[in-house]
Amino acid sequence: MKKAIGNVFMGIVFFILYLPLLVMVFFSFNSGNSTSTFKGFSLKWYGELFSSDAMTPLKNTLILAVLSAVIATIIGTAAAVYIYHIRNKLWKNSLQVVTNIPMTNPDIVTGVSLMLLFVFVGRLMGAVNSLNFFTLLIAHITFNLPYVILNVLPKLNQTDPHLAEAAQDLGSPPIQAFFRVVLPSIMPGVMSGFMMAFTLSLDDFVISYYTTGADFQTLPLFVFNMVKKPVKPYIYALYSIIFILVLAVLLFINISGAKEKKPAGSRKKQKSTT
Please, which residues bridge with residue 41 across strands? Predict the structure, then answer.
């Protein structure tokens, strides 16, 4: 009985979460412009998408998301390793608290403060346009860093602390020991941090609104400007493609993780039986 109630409850939760997405995907195949009347199945809007003015903001968004995610993952992994090796508990706890602050801080506060900083520094340097692609990139790296750190740190805590020492005893220098032994063991956390940084950057609107220049427009900003007038249906097609791609990536990661866990579980079972 409890299991049935739990299943019904979870079904309602997933229905509420995914109904808007399913409606968007459904109407992306609508042959008409209406969002209330389905006039017939058509790939019209998918064909129109690739010749539309949304392609440039999409390209800008992907470039920004990949660059910010890669840089944030590298810096965040290095920061997590540093925090992990700190012996002073007070200093370690203080760094972890400071790391959590940007995630609890409202986006509008982060966006406005970064904008003021970039404008102030730009004026000191005599720049004509203080806000541009590089200020936007720095802003995205900044709000992505805590998420990378918090994904990598638990994996470091799960790793055998003597792993790197054993590699060094076998002749590997400290840096080589990290890349050959420690990094592969924490790679799931690194990849999780990268994926989270990529999706957050892809999705961000508020911070991007305050830190970008007039010559660089991301997809969320493009859609926001379009909201002032009726949204063109090819936007439904674009976000349907993004949703399906993200869903496919998540399914692939989960299936791969399940396959990796199975052999480990079967090995333990064999050992217990022997």
Answer: 30
Q: Give the total number of structural domains in the chain.
A: 1
Domain with residue 210: its CATH number is: 1.10.3720.10
Residue 110 structural domain: 53-231
Q: Locate tokens 């493009």: which residue?
A: 222
pLDDT per residue over 169-211, tens digit each? Answer: 777 777 888 888 888 888 988 988 998 899 899 889 999 999 9
Q: List, in order, residues 6 or more apart from 10 with CB less than 8 Å away.
A: none
Is there a domain that residue 48 lies in? no
d(CA 163, CA 14): 42
In a domain, 24, yes or no: no
From the CB of residue 111, how many other CB atoms can be counted at a distance below 10 Å? 20
CA 89, 79, 186, 181 torsion-angle sign: negative
Quick check: helix, strand or coil at residue 271?
helix
Query: The tokens 């609508």 sit on which residue?
Result: 30
pLDDT digits (tens, 9 = 90+) for 208-259: 999 988 788 898 888 887 766 667 778 888 888 888 887 887 777 777 766 6
